[in-house]
Known about the structure:
By secondary structure, the chain is an alpha+beta fold. The protein has one domain: Endonuclease/exonuclease/phosphatase (Deoxyribonuclease I, Chain A), CATH 3.60.10. The protein has 5 helices and 14 strands. A 6-stranded mixed β-sheet has the order 3-4-2-1-14-13, covered by helices on one side. It has a 6-stranded mixed β-sheet with strand order 5-6-7-8-12-9, covered by helices on one side. It has a two-stranded antiparallel sheet with strand order 10-11. It is globular, with a radius of gyration of 17 Å.
Amino acid sequence: MSFTFACWNVKRFNYTPQRARAVSALIAGHDPDVIGILEFLAKDAARRLVRSDKFSDYDFAFTDSDQGIEILVGWRRSKFAQVLFTQRREMQVGNNRLRPGGLLSVREKSADVFHNLLFLHTDSGTDAVAYKNRQTMFGKIWSLQRALAKLPEAQGQARLIALGDLNTMGRKGSPNAKTEITGLTAAATQNGMALLPKSHEKTWRNIGGTMSNLDHVVASQELQFAAASGLPGALITVDGWVNRTGEARQNFVKNISVHSLLFGTVL
């Protein structure tokens, strides 16, 4: 048994028919069993998007916070025997302007164990406060990993996937973005997890052409993933503006999202 997942920051999504068609088409093109869509500005925009016939086989849940930029999580109802959704408010690190995590626990048919997908949108910024908040939020991932592994039915295996816009942009002065990612990689390893390699390193791009490595998948080391196309050793497929050039790339960044979609297959 296996299942697929996709996660995408659609960047302050307000509903327009053209943008909704583009977003739903890119997601549906990968046919994921689990979907996490970040940065909805209004719940009505999310409701209108999921009414698309491309999502007729999915059920959805939504985070709820004072921040107003929410995470929509969906799952294919015909795929799983049992599904649990919880908001992880500890990911707000005591700050109401930050977003809770969306934790989806799924049990496949004919399976006895749950896999846990934690969709995240961490604090953004290079100031000291934002950087500290991110590091604290990363620490919450490791705490959840340990807690899940201690469950009697888990038998020491958390089966946790933490993914989304982790905003690894470094801190003004030092450490820089690359060093923050190196630190995230090391911390994941120390806590029984791994930062999964992607088909494209850069996942964010602005209109001016500046690119950054912000979106990631971190997973428990006991999990196995199918190989992704692109870079040798890649386990996560990156799609969106990265697979377009010239005017098509500019239009995608301007009208759809500055972030790229992440897609993977759990074996």
